[in-house]
Amino acid sequence: MKIYNVTDKKFHEYGRVVDGDFSGMLKILSDRECPDGVVYVPSDPELEKDAACKELEREIFGGMPIQAGYCNGHNQYLNCVEYHKSSEVNIAQKDTILLLGK
Questions:
Q1: Quick check: 71 and 35 in contact, CB under 8 A?
Q2: Most exposed among 10, 28, 34, 41, judged by the fewest C-beta atoms under 10 Å?
């Protein structure tokens, strides 16, 4: 497996880095549990009220309502694959590995 940085040209076909001030969302996330296992919360009302979330809703999703949630913990397994019909925005507080494919 090859690991690429999001700034690498090979990543461009899978996505792009979105500029913005996500400090409010990161502050909210810093108060959330980070267990030895994994906790997945698909919708967090506090994240969804944050100004950065509203900006993403306007600028990335054309004003359509979005969910903002989180997945925290120390996963050691690849036991879930997701498929989305729309874009997904990932805001990482720590180094993260995303497995992406077409």
A1: no
A2: 10
